[in-house]
Amino acid sequence: MEEAAQYSLVEDGAGGTRLVLSGQLVLAVIGPFERALGAIPGPLAVIDLAAVEDIDTVGAWMVCRIARQHQCDITGAKPAAERLLAAVRGFDPSSDIGPEIRPVWERVPVAVGKQVFAARSGIAGVVGFFGQILLGAASLLRHPLRFPLKALVHQMELVGVSALPIIGLMSFLIGIVIAQQGSVQLEQFGAEALTVNLVGRITLRELGVLMTAIMVAGRSGSAFAAQLGTMKLTEEIDAMRTIGISPIEVLVIPRILAATFMMVLLGFYSSVVAMVGGAVVGDVALGIPFWTFLARIQEVVPTYDLWVGLIKAPVFGLIVALAGCYNGLQVRGNSEEVGRRTTMAVVSAIFAVIVLDAFFAVFFTEIGWA
After folding, report:
1. How many CA atoms lie within 13 A of 74 on its CB side?
2. What confidence category does residue 8 fall into, taking pLDDT thresholds of 50, 70 and 90?
3. CATH assignment of 6-89?
4. Average pLDDT of 10-33?
């Protein structure tokens, strides 16, 4: 049992007050003692540590704080106590002990440099990942019996069939909104009949496949990243490599093929359902019969608008699957990384899809498919 710390006040010959400390000035027994010392009115001339048997960092900090408060000296400290006092004497609790903040003209170039370095590493990683996919595809072409057909069918069901209800509902509502808002604006010029052209062309060329890609990125791209990231975290992928199974062939390629193929069907399905939604608005609000609306779409929408959407769809599906699988395989360390990589997969996929859509718009305009 450690001896409790004690103190006494002694008047010296010069008219000052000497604080004499004794016992154990350690963390285990110093709590009540520190509160008692804080009630000393002072002023103190000297703090005497000659009778102190043991002292730790907390005790040394308390002594220095009292000495600073009363602006007095510390005497009688043993060599070990003196080393502790020297270590904590310069610490000022009121000072800012946070990290030094560099000026803005230094922080900005450093931050830009880190981002550039991270971008370089990311590009190298994506190129390497794409190379692994090409090698895996070549290996499956040489050995077609190893192709994971059941995994491909399962992923096609998850990416495509299971997504039909939500994509259908989203597309139907988008078609309603386009038709309703477009008719309101065209009515000002007496051209509300052109709502048919608006709904048909914008759904087939742009919104049908674009909104579907965004939905697939949020639904399937995030699932790819979370599934592969969890498998990476639990070392299932390392176990597959150990027993001679390629994760790229078994896990990545089926997901990429499923997303690429099913995006074509989902994009076309989304466009058709959106046009049905527009036809409902035309029948209810514009006085255009439902089947007349749909028949008119076949007349006013050129065939190449359909091909524009069908060409975009597999590219968007490939981008979404690559982003999800790549970020899933980059998981390191802990479960928090799974959530971070899943978010990165969705954000990067949606960003890449929108950028590519802009390039496609310029390209098809240049070749006369406008």
Report:
1. 24
2. confident
3. 3.30.750.24
4. 76
Question: What pLDDT, in 10s, does the model give residues 102-131?
Answer: 888 888 898 898 888 888 888 888 899 999
Distance separating alpha carbons of residues 227 and 235, to the nearest angstrom: 12
Between 7 and 323, residue with greater pLDDT: 323
Residues paired with residue 208 on neighbouring β-strands, in sequence order? none
Q: How far is residue 97's CA from residue 92's CA, in Å, rounded to a whole number?
A: 9
In SS3 terms, the chain reads as CCCCCEEEEEECCCCCEEEEEEEEECHHHCHHHHHHHHCCCCCCCEEEEEEEEEECHHHHHHHHHHHHHHCCEEECCCHHHHHHHHHHHCCCCCCCCCCCCCCHHHHHHHHHHHHHHHHHHHHHHHHHHHHHHHHHHHHHHHCHHHCCHHHHHHHHHHHCHHHHHHHHHHHHHHHHHHHHHHHHHHHCCCCHHHHHHHHHHHHHHHHHHHHHHHHHHHHHHHHHHHHHHHHHHCCHHHHHHHCCCCHHHHHHHHHHHHHHHHHHHHHHHHHHHHHHHHHHHHHHHHCCCHHHHHHHHHHHCCHHHHHHHHHHHHHHHHHHHHHHHHHHHCCCCCHHHHHHHHHHHHHHHHHHHHHHHHHHHHHHHHCCCC
**How far, in Å, CA of 313 to CA of 153, rounded?**
19
For residue 43, cis peptide bond before it (omega within 30 degrees of 0): yes
Strand order in the sheet with 17-25: 6-11, 17-25, 46-55, 73-75
Question: What is the CB neighbour count within 10 angstroms for residue 18?
Answer: 17
Neighbour-count burial for 143-168, b at 16+ CB within 10 Å, e otherwise: eeeebbeebbeebbebbbeebeeebb
Matching residue, tokens 């490599």: 241
* Residue 177 one-letter amino acid: V
Q: How far apart (Å, rounded) are the C-alpha atoms in residues 273 and 212? A: 12
Q: How far apart are CA 91 and CA 107, in angstroms?
A: 28
- CA–CA dist 336, 357 (Å, integer): 32
> What's this model's pTM, rounded to 2 decimal places?
0.73
The alpha carbon of 368 is separated from its chain's Cα centroid by a whole number of angstroms, namely 40
253-to-6, 248, 256 alpha-carbon distances in Å = 75, 6, 5
